[in-house]
Amino acid sequence: MKLTTGLYGSTLGKKILMAVTGIILFGFVVGHMIGNLQLYLGAEALNHYAELLQSNRPFLWSFRVVMLFCVGVHVLAAVQLWLRNRSSRPIKYRVFNPPEVDYAARTMVWSGPIILAFILYHLGDFTIGCTNPDFVRGDVYHNVVSSFQVWWVAGFYILANLMLAIHLYHGLWSLFQTFGLDHPRFGGVRRWIAVAFALVIGAGNISMPLAVLTGVVR
């Protein structure tokens, strides 16, 4: 218990927790995107996929609890690290522009809350139905199309997924560093892995509201 408490209380321990929960959340993001891309296969395919998920309620709720726990731990550790960094240097550097602190790193403090707000709205839109005025329970295809036909809803999804892609890029790049894979020889490789992962996730998720807005998916 003392070892666990001491590890969590350290900066390294919080970064490891963020990395581990980040890996789990990365896996969810990939699986979630692949499942949602069945939108392009039509209503029957997407609704059958959703029905398959809903048919196993114990697994579904266990999975939701695990994801909620990971999100909570990830957000808590991130906030604590941010506050610790601020308190360690109350007076900012007059000039501070190291090459590893890029745009993605500087916007992590904003992309996190935007993604959290997006998750809450997304649940209300497609799972609970409280933010979707044309919600039909069990007809996921209809709910997606009717929601993304509203330009500002589609715009919010696009913005949130742009921020998600940036967040994933920096998170994956930092994950390698946390686990000690930070040798100069592999620096370019891990950056390109992070870029490729972020681009694939961003493009896949953003394509869906764009497809509805442009009439490709009706």
Using brief descriptors, characterize the structure shown:
218 residues; 3 helical TM bundles of succinate and fumarate reductases; single chain; mainly alpha; globular
Verbal overview:
With 218 residues, this protein is an all-alpha fold. It has a single domain, classed as Fumarate reductase/succinate dehydrogenase, transmembrane subunit (3 helical TM bundles of succinate and fumarate reductases, Up-down Bundle), CATH 1.20.1300.10. It is 78% helix and 0% strand. It is built from 9 helices and no strands. It has helices at 2-9, 11-36, 43-55, 57-88, 103-106, 108-128, 140-148, 151-178, 184-213. Helix 2 packs across helix 4, helix 2 (11-36) packs across helix 8 (151-178) and helix 6 (108-128) crosses helix 8. The longest helix has 32 residues, at 57-88. The chain is globular and about 50 Å long.
Summarize the structure.
The protein is mostly helical.
The largest sheet, given as strand count, sense and whether it forms a barrel, is: none
* CATH structural fold name: 3 helical TM bundles of succinate and fumarate reductases
- The percentage helix is over 70%
| Poorly predicted segments | none
Name of the CATH architecture: Up-down Bundle
CATH superfamily: Fumarate reductase/succinate dehydrogenase, transmembrane subunit
Question: What's the count of strands?
Answer: 0
How far the N terminus sits from the C terminus, by CA atoms, comes to 55 Å
- The structural domain count equals 1
- Rg: 19 Å
State the order of secondary-structure elements, H for helix, E for strand.
Answer: HHHHHHHHH
The dominant shape is globular
